Amino acid sequence: MVAYPPGGVSDEIARVLARQVGALLGVPVLVVHRPGAGGTVAMEALAKAPPDGHTLCFSAITPLSLSPHLGPVGYDPWTDIAPVISVMFTPVLVVGTPAFTGRHFADLVAQARASQGAIRWASSGVGTTGHMVIEQVGRASGARLTHVPYKGGGQQIADALGGHVEVLSTNVGEQQLRHVAEGRFKPLAVGAPARLDSLPSVPTLAELGYPQANRVSVFGVFAPGGTPPAVLARLNALFNQALRTEAVREHMRAAHHVPTGGTAEAFGELIGREYQLNRDLATLPVRP
Predict the structure, then answer these.
(1) What is the DSSP letter of 121?
(2) Coil, strand, or helix at residue 244?
(3) Which of 30, 42, 207, 280 has its CB surrounded by the most CB atoms within 10 Å?
(4) What is the spatial distance between Cα 98 and Cα 251, in angstroms, rounded to a whole number?
């Protein structure tokens, strides 16, 4: 299962991973999309699946590390879900759409302060990394921003191009960068450890004075809780092997993702650290 709709950042990576793992196993790996509620719909379905290693989920970690802080979810993130492997991290890109009249991030903040609530800022859903960027910027700047959540990236991009919102938080990808290069989107900031080679003139959110908003999206593969350790170890080894193939790495490079990999234990520890950090975010006024 992919926790987001077709056409988004996760879609192509999930499919190329499925092809590589299927080739290693000698059986087809089917990809189905279960979007909704920032990835929690897919996680709830995963939690109810048989713990035999035949049903997995490709998702950002936010349904485990953030969503439980924002409201009830239909699973226990610690017992109902088993991390398999960290797959990649993806920088967050903040862009102005054709409806945005400014040129820089400072213009966005100034317009939002001058007309509280008039700036519509889209993300791929409540409780996603993009949503938290919005909330942190609003909290630090004193501006009230109108959050427009989507179920994932495809429709979000289409509506942004149509000017239905002024600003968009999206994961960096080939499609998004093409729209920037062609002048349809104005790059305002990135959430990343450093400026991106593909956008060297675009500052990070930390550089702009918003270190708490300077976040990346971490994606991985998950299994149902209770999956036997031997099965999890086998799956981890398969996905690590797939991540080392040139086919997967080429897709990662083209889409500006950073491949990760490693052990299931290390991935679980990362999720735990993010869960603790996100406790503070639970005090933010989350607007649907």
Answers:
(1) E
(2) coil
(3) 42
(4) 29
By the 8 A CB rule, do 121 and 263 touch?
no
Q: Where are the beta strands (DSSP E) in the chain?
A: 57-60, 81-96, 120-123, 146-149, 167-171, 186-191, 216-224, 258-259
The C-alpha atoms of residue 30 and residue 9 are separated, in whole angstroms, by 18
Are the CB atoms for 109 and 137 separated by under 8 Å?
yes
Tell me 24's DSSP state. Answer: H
- Dump strand ranges (E) for 17-162: 57-60, 81-96, 120-123, 146-149
Place of tokens 């439980």: 68
Partnered with residue 247 across adjacent β-strands are: none
| Residue the block writes with tokens 């998950």 | 222
How many Å separate Cα 99 from the centre of its chain? 24
The structure tokens listed for 235 are 């799956």
Task: Name the β-bridge partners of 186.
Answer: 96
pLDDT tens per residue across span 19-40:
999 999 999 999 999 998 889 9
Strands 120-123 and 186-191, sheet pairing: unpaired
What is the CA 93 to chain-centroid distance, rounded?
A: 11
The C-alpha atoms of residue 106 and residue 233 are separated, in whole angstroms, by: 48
Q: pLDDT tens for residues 87-127?
A: 999 899 999 999 999 999 999 999 999 998 999 999 988 87
pLDDT averaged over every residue in the chain: 91
CB 213 within 8 A of CB 133: yes
CA 126 to chain centre: 12
Whether 156 and 150 have beta carbons less than 8 Å apart is answered as yes
E-strand ranges in 48-185 read 57-60, 81-96, 120-123, 146-149, 167-171
